[in-house]
Design goal:
single chain, alpha+beta, 4-stranded mixed beta sheet
Length: 122
């Protein structure tokens, strides 16, 4: 990833393996969307009333030009699965975002503003 991934672990012991895994998942996102400016990842252990069956929560904040996209995922038993699920959701939404951008660009390839149709009648 061109920009460093900012990782915060709350209630979880620092783990090189987990941080490496998060970095690998972030690199996958960059292959989907080369417009990512920053990626912040917060992984925490849920305690008490916040828990509701989930043990881990993952929050991704991905900054793109002009917008910020936030993803929240909770998982019951495995922090790696919680991270995987959060990045999978982010990947799907970023693919959709890039598809929409591509569609807009294709529609405007003919030089008309905002993809308007040219009047070909003489």
């Amino acid at each position: 990833m061109h920009n460093p991934v900012d990782i915060v672990l709350r209630g979880i012991l620092r783990s090189d393996a987990l941080e490496r895994y998060i970095g690998e998942e972030a690199q996958k996102l960059e292959r989907i969307c080369d417009r990512i400016r920053s990626c912040q990842v917060a992984v925490e252990t849920l305690q008490g009333e916040k828990r509701r069956g989930a043990q881990f929560a993952v929050r991704l904040i991905i900054t793109l030009p002009g917008t910020e996209v936030v993803f929240n995922r909770e998982h019951g038993g495995d922090v790696y699965m919680a991270v995987r699920d959060a990045f999978a959701a982010a990947g799907l939404q970023l693919k959709d975002h890039m598809r929409r951008l591509g569609d807009v660009e294709r529609r405007s390839d003919d030089g008309t503003p905002n993809g308007e149709k040219r009047d070909t009648r003489g």
